[in-house]
Amino acid sequence: MSIWTDLTDKVNVALENEIRVGVTGLSKGGKSTFFTSLINQFQNFSSTEAYVNLPRFTALKDSGIYYGGIVDNTDLSVPKFPYAESIDAICSNPPRWPAPTDSVTEVKIELKCKERRFYIPGENRTVYLSLYDYPGEWLIDILLLNLSYEEFSQKISCMAGELENIADFKPWYQSGLEFKGTEVFSGCEIQLKKTVHLYKEWLASLKAKGFSYVLPGRFIMPGTLENAPIIEFVPWIWRFPSRVEKNSLYAVLKERYESYKENIVRKFYDDFFCKLDRQIILVDCFKALLGGKETYRDLNDTLDILLSNFQYGRSNLFNRLFSPKIDKVIFAATKADMVTIDQHGRLMNILKTMVSQSFRRVKKDLSNCNFMLLSSIRSTRCIETKYQGETIHVLKTDYDEDKSFFPGDLPPDWSEESLKFYQENFHYHNEIKPPKVELGQPLPHMNMDLLLQYLLGDKL
After folding, report:
1. How many CA atoms lie within 13 A of 375 on its CB side?
2. CA-wise closest residue to 158 among 301, 261, 60, 289
3. Regarding predicted confidence, which is higher, 410 or 356?
4. Where are the domains of the chain?
5. Would residue 313 be called left, alpha or beta, if left means φ above 0 and alpha means ψ between -120 and 50 degrees?
6. Strand-strand pairing, 328-333 and 105-114
7. Cα dihedral angle (184, 190, 196, 198), rounded to 10 degrees?
8. Alpha-carbon distance 137 to 70, whole Å?
9. Whole-angstrom distance, CA of residue 426 vs CA of residue 421
10. Pick the residue with more confidence: 331 or 307?
């Protein structure tokens, strides 16, 4: 980045002509779908249908926004979010959901609107919205920043024991039983690779069952680090070595862990998390409900520790320039179109209980915080029908061959009985196809207008 670009960037930040938004969501939380919908809404601001499609985004009319489009990222080394591929997938025949991203991406949106600030000359104003997307697996690794190798190993050891009935850790544990830790590293590389492979399989098994606390995250989504020595380590959960020589197995594992933490995780954190103004936290409540109480606790704890690494608080000119703070946070329950309207109250309550620890942390730092139900790309409609003489709500897709259906009630509490009934009777969202949309049309959604008003209304 050139000095001139950096100076221009700081001027835009100071004048609030640039808003930096982080979209935080764990794996399969719907980030790619969210980005696709958000960009699509921006690109349709100039359409006559914009007010109809986004009726509660009052800033659209009040600020006289007349254009929204993608421009080059400030940092050209960061890949753009693949919007063209994602919207093509949605508008194809048959439609497909956007592919999840497997690396950090950014999209920079240029908005043109009326200048409403009396102290700034001119009739028109350009506002830039920089949005950052990152794989949930990489996000989890921020938890490692405050853990030594010994603390990391102890945490995984406790987790393995607690979740033994859910995912068997014995294969990788037994593979490493022959390690003493004092042996010269070069003599046990083959056995280490086998143990690392089995450890990765254990992590993948936990992830498949809905768990978020999967460390290190790049073990299951390595990106450019595939087969790199820096991710060839495992937590030490065997007998602690009597001595640790420089070239011993234990010393090498510890060195790789520290190198991974400092050179990969901290750089990732410094590059993308220390400059955010606002944050959207996407939560897939359905996935956690399917996993039961264990995944509920896992998600609540993970988000709480995760958000402790962000800076929250009221924003002013000084910290916008030198120490940015996140002054608005949105907790959004994604895929809300997977339940009928009479279940929205329960879904909101589930969201609030699942992020209760995180909410208290954000509010403690005086950041403005809100909850909402969200469907970035709405694929069902809620309609009324008669069943056994009573009027009930059911869901209908865009496909004539799909019959209307009742997905099931959400559990009223977290009791084992309620969760078991839900898991046996609820139609999960993976069965639902994307809506039918023509290229160039605004995507159907639920509450994207409310999100935009909360996110941008006071900045335009």
Report:
1. 23
2. 301
3. 410
4. 3-139+271-381+435-456, 146-268
5. left
6. unpaired
7. -140
8. 27
9. 8
10. 331
Q: Work out the number of other CB atoms within 10 angstroms of the CB of residue 187.
A: 9
Sign of CA dihedral 414, 416, 418, 419: positive
Two tokens at 234?
A: 């495992």
Beta carbons of 312 and 323 less than 8 angstroms apart: no
Nearest to 244 by CA among 176, 323, 150: 150
Q: Give the predicted TM-score (pTM) of the model.
A: 0.83
| Closest to 257 measured CA to CA, from 265, 246, 268 | 265
Q: In angstroms, what CA-CA distances link 233 with 137, 276, 289, 360?
A: 17, 32, 32, 35
Residue 193 contacts residue 232 (beta carbons within 8 Å): yes
Residues written for the chain = 460
**CA dist., res. 139 & res. 187, Å (int):** 34
Percent of the chain beyond pLDDT 90? 41
pLDDT per residue over 72-90, tens digit each?
987 778 889 999 999 999 9
| pLDDT tens digit sequence for 138-196 | 888 988 988 999 999 999 999 999 888 889 999 999 999 988 888 888 888 899 999 99
pLDDT band at 429 (very low <50, low <70, confident <90, very high): low
d(CA 454, CA 91): 28
3-139+271-381+435-456: CATH topology is Rossmann fold (3.40.50)
**Burial (0-12, 13-18, 19+ Cβ within 10 Å), 410:** buried
Tokens 């862990």 belong to which residue? 257
CA-to-CA separations, 180 to 73, 193, 250, 390, in angstroms, rounded:
49, 16, 8, 69
Distance from CA of residue 127 to its chain's centroid?
25
**Sorting pLDDT into bands at 50, 70 and 90, what band is 401?**
confident
Listed range (60-64, 268-272, 399-403, 406-410) with the worst mean pLDDT = 268-272
Report d(CA 91, CA 440) in Å as an integer: 9
Question: CA 266 from chain center: how many Å?
Answer: 18
DSSP code for 429: G
